[in-house]
Specification:
Blueprint: E1 12-21, E2 25-33, E3 39-47, E4 49-56, E5 62-70, E6 75-79, E7 82-86, H1 91-103, E8 105-118, E9 127-138, E10 150-155, H2 156-165, H3 171-185, H4 191-201
Parallel strand pairs: 4-9
Antiparallel strand pairs: 1-2, 2-3, 4-7, 5-6, 5-10, 8-9
Helix pairs in contact: 2-3, 3-4
């Protein structure tokens, strides 16, 4: 395949119908020509929100995990603070809001650690951005009426162990937490954040 072919679309959309929508998603039925030229169908779920997740890191190297029962999977899930930002809103502003609502934490500093994540690109167009937040101030959590949350303050090493053991399975949480050792070792990581990451994860290697 030539380099310029990577940006060409082998699919052709013939028709699209909206079959269901609510304030969060829209489900579409597409009639298409497949890459081999044969007719086919494709179901697509459009998300009206941009996903954001935040790893809060305190000066002692601890983070906060949020526990809740996830309706679609019918099981309990431990995750980083995360949520959806409406179309047109700045993802960073939405991430700050989600962090405050779910944990009560306000961040003196925050930066993106993964700028673009495609969450399930075979069936939906949902994308997300992941952040790390530090210089934290504790306040009062204000969860949504759809959330019954529990909070756990754990070391970054313990949070990473929960990913490696399979106790944390949420994709945004896994990606963000697995990024932290790379962030600890990066030359351009702010010094105060690096010090906290070293306390929480241990030194390089």
């Amino acid at each position: 395949m030539r380099d310029h072919d990577r940006d060409s679309n082998p699919w052709r959309t013939l028709n699209r119908d909206r079959v269901y929508e609510n304030p969060w998603i829209r489900v579409e039925h597409h009639e298409v020509l497949k890459p081999n030229g044969d007719p086919g169908i494709y179901g697509l779920v459009h998300f009206r929100n941009h996903a954001v997740g935040v790893v809060p890191v305190d000066s002692d190297g601890f983070t906060w995990l949020v526990g809740q029962h996830r309706y679609p999977l019918d099981r309990y899930s431990w995750e980083i603070p995360e949520g959806g930002v409406p179309e047109g809103e700045d993802p960073a502003a939405g991430a700050i809001r989600e962090l405050k609502e779910e944990t009560g934490l306000s961040a003196g500093r925050m930066m993106p650690i993964i700028g673009r994540v495609a969450l399930s690109n075979s069936v939906c167009d949902e994308e997300g951005t992941l952040y790390v937040a530090w210089n934290l101030t504790q306040g009062t959590a204000e969860p949504d009426d759809t959330e019954e949350l529990r909070l756990r303050r754990v070391t970054l090493r313990d949070a990473l162990s929960m990913v490696l053991s399979g106790e944390i399975t949420d994709s945004l949480s896994m990606l963000a937490l697995l990024r932290l050792p790379l962030l600890r070792d990066a030359a351009d990581t702010p010094a105060d954040l690096r010090a906290a990451l070293v306390r929480g994860l241990g030194p390089t290697g």
